[in-house]
Write a structure and sequence with these properties.
Elements (H helix, E strand, L loop, with lengths): L1 H9 L6 E4 L2 E4 L4 E4 H9 L27 H5 L5
Antiparallel strand pairs: 1-2, 2-3
Helix pairs in contact: 1-2
Amino acid sequence: MLVQAAAQQWQVDPASCSTSNGIVSHAASGRALAYADLVDAASALPVPQDPPRKDPKNFTLIGKPLKRLDTPNKTDGKVV
């Protein structure tokens, strides 16, 4: 819905838009919008009945080891 809202605003095909790191971008025109800037327009669109799912091979966070930023403070006693 966020991609569709951006594509409508830019008057481009939604398939030519991409998303990453909280931004919808259109490479051909160099335009980009943050998800936060698209929320109002996207909320007015109909919810798709069968949205396409991301292929697991394209996951960037799920299933990847991530550094726990809270662990050092827990182990050295800074967190109560």
